[in-house]
Amino acid sequence: MFDKLVILLLLFVGLVYLSNTRSMKVVTLQMISSGEKKVDDIDKESKTIQSQIRWLTNGMVALCFVLLLVGVVTLSDFGRLLFQ
Predict the structure, then answer these.
(1) pTM of the entire predicted model
(2) Which class for 18: exposed (0-12), middle (13-18), buried (19 or more C-beta within 10 A)?
């Protein structure tokens, strides 16, 4: 029971990390688009950052599904323990 709660906590920390990293990439892309950040090749850099944003988003969605699955299993175990 408690090992699943620790796993949920670690997965949540991973989700927060991915979310913060994605937000920083979005801000970097906006800075490149507005001209605040100087880069050598704007098109190449923005395509790279957009690809990273896409991968981070896919990772967040996959992690949410895993969190949901582990959460449901943990809640069902807790319900069994509570109502025995």
Answers:
(1) 0.84
(2) buried
Q: Which residues contact 29 (CB under 8 A, 6 or more apart)?
A: 46, 49, 50, 53
pLDDT digits (tens, 9 = 90+) for 39-52: 888 899 999 999 99
Domain that holds residue 34: 2-82
Residue length of the chain: 84
Q: How many domains does the chain have?
A: 1
In terms of Cα–Cα distance, which of 21, 29, 6 is closest to 58?
21
Separation of alpha carbons 34 and 30, rounded Å: 6
